[in-house]
Write a structure and sequence with these properties.
Layout (H helix, E strand, L loop, with lengths): L2 H4 L2 E7 L3 H18 L3 E7 L6 H11 L3 E5 L6 H11 L4 E4 L11 H9 L4 E5 L7 H19 L11 E4 H4 L12 H7 L4 E5 L15 H19 L4 H28 L9 H33 L12
Helix pairs in contact: 2-3, 6-9, 10-11
Length: about 325
C-alpha cells in the first residue's frame, strides 16, 4: 500500500441556509467515502445560517463520529468558512466542496487518483455547468479569463469549490475576502504542481444561490491584491518606485510641453494646466518612491521579527 493510500482525507463543506440539502448530501457522501476505504472525516462549517441547517446537522453528527460541524456566530463568508475547516482538519489531503448538491461526491475518488499521480492541487472543472448563463456562467467565464491571465495558472474554472489539496501546500496560506478561489495561484507561487480535471455539476434542487454578479467586482479587487502579494511582497519598492518614476517622467513631459507652448506658441503658463500637472505629478512621484522605501522597511520588519524565511522547501536530504 502506497503512502498516499494511507493518508487521511478531510472533506470540508461550508454551508449557509442549506437545511434541505444536508441529509441527502451526507447520505451520498458517506457512501462514496466508505467505498474509498480510507480514513476520512467530513467537516461542515455552518456559516451563520438562519434556517434549520444546524438542527439538521446535529443529529447526523451524533450518529456518525466521522461527520463534524463548526458553527459560526454570524455569516463570515465562504473564504472564512474554508479557512476554519482547513485549520481544524486532521487529514493530509483536503477536499472542499459545496453543500448545495451541485458538486457530486462521486468525483472525489477521481480527484484523489489525480493527487496520487504526484500533483499537489487538483482543481475541478464544471465543464457542463448547470447554472443560468447571464447571471452565473458569463460572469464566471470573464472572471476565470482574468484570473488565469493575471495569476498565471491556466485552469478553466477557478470558482469551482470541488478541489483536492495536499495540506502541506496550504499551511502558509492565509485567506481573506474572496480569495479561496485563488488557492491554486498561491500554490503555484510556492512551487506546487497544479492539475485540472472535469467534474460533474448538477442543477440546484433546494434553496437559492448566494452568489450574484457583484461578486465579479470583488474577485477583481481581490485579484489585484493577490497579484501585488505574489509579485511584489518581497520587493514593494519595484512597484512603488516604478510608479514614482513613471509619474516623474510624466511631469517632465508636461513641463516640457508647457515650455514649448510658452516659447513657440506664445501661450502663457497661467493659460494652460500643464505647470500645475507638472508639479502635481512630480510631488506624487517622489511620494510614491518614499512609500516604496517605507514598504521595504515594513517587509523587512515582518520577516525578521517573526523569523519567517523568504523561501519554501519542498524536500531536503542532509
Amino acid at each position: 500500500m502506497s503512502q498516499t493510500e494511507k493518508e487521511m482525507i478531510s472533506v470540508i463543506i461550508p454551508v449557509f441556509n442549506e437545511a434541505e440539502n444536508i441529509s441527502p448530501l451526507c447520505e451520498k457522501l458517506t457512501s462514496v467515502m466508505n467505498d474509498i476505504k480510507r480514513d476520512y472525516e467530513v467537516i461542515f462549517i455552518d456559516d451563520g445560517s438562519s434556517d434549520d441547517t444546524l438542527s439538521v446537522l446535529r443529529p447526523i453528527c451524533m450518529k456518525n463520529p466521522r461527520i463534524k460541524f463548526i458553527s459560526f456566530s454570524r455569516n463570515f463568508g465562504q473564504t472564512s468558512a474554508l479557512s476554519a475547516g482547513i485549520d481544524f482538519s486532521k487529514g493530509k489531503i483536503i477536499v472542499p466542496m459545496d453543500g448545495d448538491l451541485q458538486n457530486d461526491p462521486e468525483d472525489i475518488p477521481v480527484l484523489l487518483r489525480k493527487i496520487e499521480e504526484g500533483y499537489d492541487v487538483v482543481s475541478g472543472w464544471r465543464k457542463d455547468r448547470k447554472d443560468p448563463f447571464l447571471k452565473r456562467r458569463l460572469p464566471s467565464i470573464i472572471a476565470n479569463k482574468i484570473i488565469s491571465f493575471i495569476g498565471g495558472v491556466q485552469i478553466h474554472d477557478h470558482g469551482c469549490t470541488l478541489k483536492a489539496y495536499r495540506k502541506d501546500i496550504l499551511r502558509n496560506i492565509r485567506l481573506y475576502g474572496e480569495m479561496h478561489r485563488f488557492i491554486p495561484v498561491y500554490a503555484r507561487w510556492v512551487g506546487a504542481r497544479v492539475a485540472e480535471i472535469p467534474v460533474h455539476h448538477h442543477p440546484r434542487k433546494f434553496g437559492s444561490s448566494k452568489y450574484g454578479v457583484n461578486r465579479v467586482f470583488k474577485v477583481i479587487l481581490d485579484l489585484m491584491v493577490v497579484k501585488f502579494l505574489l509579485s511584489y511582497s518581497q520587493k514593494p519598492i519595484y512597484i512603488f518606485g516604478g510608479m514614482g518614476f513613471l509619474m516623474i517622467f510624466g511631469s517632465i513631459l508636461s513641463g516640457a510641453y508647457a515650455v514649448y507652448l510658452k516659447l513657440f506658441r506664445g501661450v502663457s503658463f497661467i493659460l494652460t494646466p500643464m505647470p500645475i500637472l507638472t508639479v502635481f505629478l512630480l510631488v506624487l512621484g517622489f511620494v510614491s518612491i518614499l512609500m516604496g522605501f517605507l514598504a521595504e522597511v515594513l517587509i523587512r520588519t515582518y520577516y525578521e521579527s517573526q523569523g519567517k524565511p523568504t523561501y519554501q522547501i519542498r524536500e531536503m536530504l542532509s
